[in-house]
Design goal:
Organism: Anaplasma marginale
Protein name: Chaperone protein DnaK
Function: Acts as a chaperone.
Structural class: alpha+beta
Keywords: ATP-binding, Chaperone, Coiled coil, Nucleotide-binding, Phosphoprotein, Stress response
Family: Belongs to the heat shock protein 70 family.
CATH class of the largest domain: Alpha Beta
Number of helices: 14
Largest sheet: 6 strands, mixed
CATH architecture of the largest domain: 2-Layer Sandwich
CATH superfamily of the largest domain: ATPase, nucleotide binding domain
Length: 641
């Protein structure tokens, strides 16, 4: 039996992409709008939820209920949101996580991600004509455990079995290096996407992709470049008119779209004009925003952001033990922001003048790599071994609040490490262990993943009990912890219950809500299709009535006209159920058959007359045969053309 297919998904901050392995090649799947990427945007209107391009199109008139860049919020606490600017409301959930409010309802960023993944899943299922259950999903290499778990939860809510979480730069390296032969090479993947920045150093040889080091910044990406342009636009407008647009969500949304458009245009042009008519008004009348933005000015606005990518590059090279950039064979650029000429030039300068590789599509390469990883898991891709690393150190809080790492950053995963701890006081029968992730010396400055208590320790003087704690990072980069009391031999596996994140009950509820929503969406879709069919039937029946109404009895004609009227009234009433519409539709369809019979009879009569005329000039069939010369063109001749 063939292995179940696994799709590869790049769940991006700005856009998402899906690919699959087919006949040994990774193929990007187009969505229902015919695009190879889908905007990671979710909007809530009065009557429905929109995802992707449809959500993005209506953002101007529904800014406060249109959610974009939710990936920058996923797995994060509300008190860690100072760097995120958006027109929609972000509020603290009961557990302290950052949640989003739209149309009065609270949504976890995990749910928003799940809505995007549902759209991606539908895209794949439409392509295959069959259900899709398994997926490899990519995350920024510098995502912490909470963010990775949140991404996996989003997949679960969307109805996907997330068989692997893979780092985006590693996926890009897979896509880039799979067909490059067995020669050993050292490559750097510089990934500047919509919301995050990652850099990874890899060694590739004989099908082995080994990540030597990774670094990055989860709070740096294309959104920040957009924000820099937005601030410039709003400040220019304020200086000109005295009006501050920051508190006008609709204006901010229009400015955001214009800023993103200008940013993209300046990758291929030296200047661009930004014009937003009727952006605001005052007592003197309507105000318009109009300014010229040059590439040089844009580069000046974002120069600090570009420079922020260099320090992680230095750290990654240092962790990989590379002192000389000439040892790097290739620099691969990933992410939409790497199309910016200034970014390309800065990367080139840092890596000793080496021209970055432009042989990959920065918007699609990560999804392609995820699909290849899916192929590795199913066995469709052979002789490829991927060795990734833990991006951040993992450890515990020890006496005095010091952070004691057990698993250092850039350790190859999966990995497991144990260490023996003891009690700090005489007669202590329980210990509380706090697990942190990060690089700071003091535990409180790092990310608290969770904490647990081990109770029932035999009473003894301090330092005597021996408690072996094991930290385990799986292939997804997700942390598991177990503890064993060596004196009694009692062992217990402990699942970290983070102070944030979604509980199993919340995830189950969201999964059920998604399934219920899918049923509602299917009913809504069928209702729309039924209404479209009814409109088409009314149109065609009225046309036939106009053409052949005189061929049927007045009673039949009156009955058809009455049925058309009833169906039209039914369609104009929003409260009409699908069953009622179907009944009216069937009634008109039945009556319109009379018109069909009349039309057939009229065409038959016309056809008989035509055949009669044609027979007068037909003559002997053989007399109408015309000889013609021909030349046979062989395949070899065709190939020469």
């Amino acid at each position: 039996m063939a292995a179940e297919r696994i799709i590869g998904i790049d769940l991006g901050t700005t856009n998402s992409c899906v690919a699959v392995m087919e006949a040994g090649t990774a193929k990007v799947i187009e969505n229902s709008e015919g695009s190879r990427t889908t905007p990671s945007v979710v909007a809530f209107t009065e009557n429905e939820r929109l995802v992707g391009e449809l959500a993005k199109r209506q953002a101007n008139i529904n800014a406060q209920n249109t959610i974009y860049a939710s990936k920058r919020i996923i797995g994060r606490r509300y008190d860690d949101m100072r760097d995120v600017k958006c027109p929609y409301e972000v509020f603290p959930a009961k557990n302290g996580d950052a949640w989003i409010r739209a149309r009065g309802e609270g949504y976890s960023p995990v749910q928003i991600g799940a809505f995007v993944l549902e759209k991606i899943k539908e895209t794949a299922e439409r392509y295959f004509g069959a259900p899709v259950k398994k997926a490899v999903i990519t995350v920024p290499a510098y995502f912490n455990d909470a963010q990775r778990q949140a991404t996996k939860d989003a997949g679960t809510i969307a109805g996907l079995d997330v068989v692997r979480i893979i780092n985006e730069p590693t996926a890009a390296a897979l896509a880039y290096g799979l067909d490059k032969g067995d020669k050993q090479r050292t490559i750097v993947v510089y990934d500047l996407g919509g919301g995050t920045f990652d850099v990874s150093v890899l060694e590739i040889a004989e099908g082995v992709f080994e990540v030597k080091a990774t670094n990055g910044d989860t709070k740096l990406g294309g959104e920040d470049f957009d924000n820099a342009v937005m601030e410039h636009m709003m400040e220019s407008f304020k200086q000109e008119t005295g009006i501050d647009l920051h508190n006008d969500p609709m204006a901010v949304q229009r400015i955001k779209e214009a800023a993103e458009k200008a940013k993209i245009e300046l990758s291929s042009r030296l200047e661009t004009d930004i014009t937003l008519p009727f952006i605001s008004s005052d007592s003197t009348g309507a105000k318009h925003l109009s300014l010229k933005l040059t590439r040089a000015k844009f580069e000046g606005l974002v120069s600090e952001l570009i420079e922020r990518t260099i320090e992680p590059c230095k750290k990654a090279l240092d962790d990989a033990g590379i002192k000389d950039t000439s040892k790097i064979d290739e620099v691969v650029l990933v992410g939409g922001m790497t199309r910016m000429p200034k970014v390309i030039q800065r990367v080139k300068d840092f890596f000793g003048g080496k021209e970055p590789c432009k042989g990959v599509n920065p918007d699609e390469v990560v999804a392609i790599g995820a699909a290849i990883q899916g192929g590795i898991l199913t066995g469709d891709v052979r002789d490829v071994l991927l060795l990734d690393v833990a991006p951040l150190s993992l450890g515990i809080e020890t006496l005095g609040g010091v952070f004691t790492p057990l698993i250092e950053r850039n350790t190859t995963i999966p990995t497991k490490k144990s260490q023996v701890f003891s009690t700090a006081e005489d007669g202590q029968t329980a210990v509380t262990i706090k697990v942190y992730q990060g690089e700071r010396k003091m535990a409180v400055d790092n990310k608290l993943l969770g904490q647990f208590s081990l109770e029932g320790i035999p009473s003894a003087p301090r330092g005597i009990p021996q408690i072996e704690v094991t930290f385990d990072i799986d292939a997804n980069g997700i942390v598991h912890v177990s503890a064993k009391d060596k004196a009694s031999g009692k062992e217990q596996t402990i699942k970290i219950q983070s102070s944030g994140g979604l509980s199993e009950e919340e995830i189950k509820k969201m999964v059920q809500d998604a399934q219920d929503r899918a049923e509602e969406d299917e009913k809504r879709k069928k209702r729309v299709e039924l209404k479209n069919s009814a409109e088409a039937l009314i149109h065609s029946t009225e046309k036939s009535l106009n053409d052949y109404g005189d061929k049927i009895s007045s009673a039949d004609k009156s009955g058809i006209e009455a049925a058309i009227k009833e169906l039209r009234e039914c369609l104009s009433n929003d409260d009409s159920s699908s069953d009622v519409i179907q009944q009216k539709y069937d009634a008109l369809m039945q009556l319109s058959m009379k018109l069909g019979e009349a039309a057939y009879s009229a065409q038959k009569d016309s056809g008989t007359s035509t055949d009669s005329t044609a027979s007068d000039t037909s003559g002997n069939p053989e007399e109408r045969v015309v000889d013609s010369e021909y030349q046979e063109i062989k395949k070899d001749d065709e190939d020469k053309k």
